[in-house]
Amino acid sequence: MSACRLLLFVLLTLRAAAPSHAAMTAESVMILEEGLQQPSAVAVAEDGRAFVLDGLQRRIQVFDNAGKLVHGVMLPAGEMPAADIAYDKGLLYVADPSAHRILVLTPQGKLLKELRPRPDEQPVEPSSVLVLGNQLWWSDRRGHRLCRSRLNGEQPVHCQGGRGEALGRFRYPYMLAADTSGYVLAVDVLNARVQIHEPGGKPVGSLGGFGMLPGYLFRPNGLVVWKNGGVLVSDAWTGHLTLFYRRKAQGLLVHDDGRPWRFSMPVGMALWKDRLYVADLLANQVEVLRLKDNPGLNTSLPEAKPERDSRKNCLQCHPSWSRNYQPEENTLVLPVADRRMCLSCHHGAVMESRPLIAHGHQHPTLHDQREGKPAGDTTRFDNDEVPRDFPLKKNGHLDCASCHTPHKPPKEAVAQGRRNPWLREPNRNSSLCLECHASRHTGAEDRQRKGLKVLNHPLGVMMKKPVVDKVQGYARREELQQGLPDALKQAGARLGDRGQLICQSCHQVHGAKGKALLVMENDQGALCISCHRSQNAKDRPDAHDKGIHPVGVKTDKEVELGGRKIHRLDCLACHSVHDAQPGTALLPRGENARDLCANCHERQNAADKEEAFKKGVHPVNTLLDEPVKLAGQEIRNLDCRGCHSVHEGVKGTAVLVEDAADGTLCVVCHEEQDKLSHTDHDLRRHPGEHKNRLKESWNKVGLCGACHSMHRGEGQQPFLFVGPPFQPEENQDMTARDALCMGCHHKDNDLEAKPIEHFTHPWKDLILRSDPSDMPLLDEKGKVSEFGRIACITCHEPHRWRPQEESPLAGRSKDGENEEGTVLSSFLRRKGAGNSFCVTCHGQEAKVRYLYFHDERGRK
Question: Which value, in Å, is the radius of gyration of the alpha carbons in the chain?
């Protein structure tokens, strides 16, 4: 050993009292924070460029020496964040422990090498990296050892250490630094110290030690060596930076007024000139300080006995058990239940859990408020109880330890089949979740069970093809018989051990994307749509093409559904995944399918036939005289669902259960009008410029739509009529029904309709009587009656070309051309006046008058 190195060794390892050193103070220069999410380390180039390892986004953010973001560098794909970064001679070195590698990149992001050192058969997890000359040093957190290899990655790899508390052994080695003589300092996290090694790797001493008082370390993380030999060590739990000289703690890094600097969770650090860069993980930033010695400020630490407690390992999570513990002001929880305690190990120093416990939404604990109820209040379990196996605080509140315990040996946990060895009970197929959330469980086989008080999205549905067709409990749609969709799997969702839906198929206890602890955002039903893709549409036209109800669209006005005020229509507007109304398709409590539609579709709803007539809509909420079958379903009570299927309508329709373009839907109930197709009243054959009064082209609205509109008719207009309007002249005496016909058949029409000038028949001072089933008359209110006046419908049935015609091509000749009407067709109800009520008055003239009723000569 050279004389210089021997002298340095003596200075570092000297335990005797040393003269008090000048205090080190710092002032803030700037903060680097643009786009950072839980940065763990920072490296600085010769020109002051700062390379910040942006943890959760697996990238490097590059800032210039003035703090301006220059560019970002994405790291190669990996499941977990990288842990540390180093810069040397124009290259970046990144420790990527979960991928068992060290990345070598250019500052522009070009990947040059992937170093995958294998000192033995055990995979390594490099958690920190240091370039020293032509050697690459790195911490192996998995093997609890310190390793070094050639910078070019060639073998051999030299490792030393192993798990333990003796000098040279580690309990999770982490950040590394070197002094000017090549001595390597390595943070030993759970041994709460920094070990010092010769350039050849031999351990020669340590600094620090476990304790609760200033000058001791609790959870050391980062370190830098100052130009005068001082060592600054960051503590992820206390938030302080402790200054050591000659292995002796000199004090905390302080402000100019003597107040200690305290960070949220300081991890990695770097030096450039007189600047100290501190990666503050929980603050999502790197704070840049200017260091200086302040001889006039006394920050010497009081004499304190080291923590000599046989429970040292317990105190590492339970500092409140220590006699030296001082509770923080306004603290809500004991340290063991503070998420910072868990994160002080689980940010990559011991275990990497940042994407879970330090990101996104978490399962509520005693310090979380939700739904306006107190933090940790278990009365939020309205219909459930927390079993005794899950301990609560004295006040009945939850904390992390209610579900988790560090005292179950992993081997025992694995033997019991636990995926997570630190849960109090196995969570196979969400069994642990359901211990507390039993009321949120509806099995696939329970959906139709009578007596259910609440309905939930079913669990246990098998996401694979059934062995036998139409067996219950399996996904019906072919795309769902392949397992979870890729979008859900990539978000972290999973199925049960038999391929069935479980709680974790939609929910994530830690690191979730919303308050409902979902694996992905569901603002506009994105999670629902992942599985229910056939029920989704990008806009209204797309929904019409698919025959489904639109989603993701704004409502015309605010509506209230299931106690929620709705402005935009998404899946949760009509469905309640949990706490739904039994016997429904997961509709909100208190709602039923019959009434739900009316909340938004108020215009199309009517309490009875009378209200429907006034509004100009097809009657709903009415009992049919005889049941009919629509799309295989027997309909007796007519409501919206009789004609519409919200998610499984015929493509290209307004979610109709049958196509209405050719009248198929309408004639199910209106079977007497089913012979309209291919007649002159089939207005689909007319060119597009002809439109109904709703400005809809006849050739696009279907067989019935040229004259009728189910939901957009005008009040007092019979039969939901929307055909061309007609205003009678003062000398024209006609019924409202006649005016419907005259809208097309008036003398000035341009529709190729036969103009009818002579159509009235005397009725005043006469008593006319006819069988309504043969030749119906109209009473004074325009309703079909045995007594009344003659109207168009007395002789004509506008939906049938010839009397009793059954041909689907009625109104067409054999060669398919339009057939000219005669006295034997032309929508007449009968072939002559014989035995009709006409004979009562006209006797033998009745035949001629009937056949030439509209001819002026025949009326004389």
Answer: 42
Neighbouring C-alpha atoms within 13 Å toward the C-beta of 387 = 13
For residue range 137-164, list pLDDT tens digits in order: 999 999 999 999 988 777 788 999 999 9
H/E stretch holding 531: helix 526-531
pTM greater than 0.85 (yes/no)? no
Q: 375 pLDDT exceeds 60?
A: no
User: What does the alpha-carbon distance between residue 647 and residue 739 come to, in Å, rounded to a whole number?
Assistant: 40
Strands (E), 116-170: 126-132, 135-140, 145-150, 158-161
* Exposure string for 375-404, b = 16+ CB within 10 A, e = fewer: ebbbeeeeebeeeeebebbeeebbbbbbbe
**Which tokens go with 764?**
């005043």
Number of other residues whose CB lies within 10 A of the CB of residue 563: 10
**Pairwise pLDDT comparison (376 vs 764), residue with the higher score:** 764
Mean pLDDT of 264-289: 97
User: Residue holding tokens 């493509």?
Assistant: 651
pLDDT score of 374 = 56
pLDDT attached to residue 16: 34
Kindly list the distances between the CA atom of residue 550 and the CA atoms of 535, 539, 655, in Å, as whole numbers in the listed order: 9, 7, 10
Three-state DSSP state, 468: coil
Residues forming beta bridges with residue 92, ordered by sequence position: 87, 105
Query: Hey, which bits of 564-703 come out as E strands?
Result: 564-569, 622-630, 633-638
Q: What is the mean pLDDT of residues 366-384?
A: 55
pLDDT for 815-833, tens place per residue?
A: 556 677 777 788 888 877 7
Give the dihedral sign, CA 655/660/666/671: negative
Instruction: Specify burial of residue 659 (Cβ count, 10 A radius: 0-12, 13-18, 19+).
Output: middle
CA geometry: angle at 164 spanning 161 and 170, to 5°? Answer: 50
The neighbouring-strand residues paired with 140 are 126, 145
Name the helix (H) or strand (E) containing 597.
helix 593-600
Per-residue b or e along 765-792, where b marks 16 or more CB atoms closer than 10 Å to that residue's CB: eeebebeeeebbbbeeeeeebeebbbbb
**What secondary structure does DSSP assign to 7-29, as a single string?**
HHHHHHH--S--PPPPEEEEEEE
Q: How far apart are CA 171 and CA 192, in angstroms?
A: 9
The pLDDT > 90 percentage for the chain reads: 39
Q: How far apart are CA 124 and CA 101, in angstroms?
A: 8
Q: How far are the Cα atoms of 683, 706, 750 from residue 689, in angstroms, in the given order?
A: 12, 12, 11
Distance CA 358, CA 665 (A): 56
Q: How far apart are CA 183 and CA 198, in angstroms?
A: 5
Position 5 scores a pLDDT of 39
- Residue in 595, 542, 599 with CA at minimum distance from that of residue 569: 599
Distance CA 354, CA 347 (A): 5
Helices (H), 275-326: 312-315
Instruction: Check pLDDT > 80 for residue 365.
Output: no
41-100: per-residue pLDDT in tens? 999 999 999 999 999 999 999 999 999 999 999 999 998 999 999 999 999 999 999 999
